[in-house]
Amino acid sequence: FHHFSNFQGECDIIKELSQIFVNKFYIEIDYTERENENIYNKSSLSFAAKLDLPIVASNDVLFISDSDYE
């Protein structure tokens, strides 16, 4: 499953980057309810599966001031 217009071309770029950053290249996904995020995450998971790359889940946490961080 993918919604990118040039899946193979994008796979080639991701593969090239993963060969430059050996054992240091991850596919990131997050769930912050942004528009089209589900499409992005599904496509990212497809890239990771096709290229056997690790996945890291993140969250876009922001604080207005240092005191907001516990």
Verbal overview:
- The longest helix is centred in the middle third of the chain and has 15 residues, at 37-51.
- Strand 1, helix 2 (37-51) and strand 2 form a beta-alpha-beta unit.
- It contains two helices and two strands, in the order αβαβ.
- The termini are far apart.
- Strands 1-2 form a two-stranded parallel ribbon.
- The model has no long low-confidence stretch (mean pLDDT 88).
- The protein has 70 residues and is of the alpha+beta class.
The total count of strands amounts to: 2
SS class: alpha+beta
Number of DSSP helical runs: 2
The secondary-structure element order is HEHE
The averaged pLDDT comes out at 88
Portion of residues in beta strands equals: 5-15%
Q: Major β-sheet, in short? A: 2 strands, parallel
Low-pLDDT parts are: none
Percentage of residues in helical conformation: 40-55%
Distance between the termini: 39 Å
Strand order of the largest sheet: 1-2
Overall 3D geometry? extended
Rg from alpha-carbon coordinates: 15 Å
Mind sketching the topology for me?
Blueprint: H1 7-20, E1 27-30, H2 37-51, E2 55-58
Parallel strand pairs: 1-2
Features:
single chain; 70 residues; alpha+beta; two-stranded parallel sheet; 2 helices; extended
Quick recap:
This protein is of the alpha+beta class and 70 residues long.
